[in-house]
Amino acid sequence: MATYSKSGRSRAYNWFLHRITGTFLIFMLITHFWVQHYDSQLASVTHSVVAPGASPASSEAVQSAEQVAAGGLPEYPEAAVQAVRERRAAGLLPPQRPGEPEVTSYDVVMTRLADPVYAVLWKGFNILFLIVALHHGFYGIANILGDYIRNDMALAIARTLTWALALVLLVVGLYSVITAGWGIQTLS
Amino acid sequence: MAVDIASRSESHPVQRYKVRTGMFAWLCHRLSGIAIVLYLVLHVWGLKSLSDRDAFNELIASYHAPIYKFGEFMLLVAIAYHALNGLRIVLIDFLGWSPNHKKLFWTLGAVAALIIVVGGYPSLYALFTYFTT
Question: At A10, is the secondary structure helix, strand, or coil?
């Protein structure tokens, strides 16, 4: 029988924290999902598979990601289109390029990030969400590793690599969230 | 958990398990958890494109391919199950609801099924129309 935790840290504390973060995640995930998919101005219309030029009846019904990336962007609700038009007219968004749809996903997201309330409140929310989600997920993985790896040294190495990956994702995520929208002027 | 010792014999040296409700719930929780972490890695990594207009638009476009529509639905299934079974675990651990845990499992299972059907409708409808029209 392998020995249980050799660290001095209380396992009960981590066990408790895992349940707390899990409960929090339910509420944060509902909020995240609502904002990304149902807010009238932000939501992309995802009720269709966006794949222009596709001939669905053909044998190649499922397009590769490259084919779709060649031109398929989602449609946005009128409120979002209007907001992007206003910002572009005010010179706050780069001009539409030839061959590009008037409203791209990037324009919509940047318009949202230009809103100071969004920039502060939701960036804060996203940072908290990122930390809690990464902790919950990677603590779970570390637990699973402990269940199947019986060699103490191998387990220590596997857990170190796992938390290293979590740390890389934390840095990438923090950087992305914090710097998103920088360089795009805000409406004054 | 729920190890059926009696079924171990010389002809079956491999341990066999009798899968009961609790173990089934545990196994699904573990598998969905691993799947969600894999998604989380891709999702967070994809955020890097927020600093690059073309990369971001390409990424969003590729997310609307049929394979991602299917993935979207599977993600909802995994999340709905993991969240509600997690809630069940919390209720059992903190409120001592264990005598009712099977009933609780199937009740929350019904809620999860409802969330999957209602929330997954857009993805499935999109896939359906894509393949039939």
Answer: coil
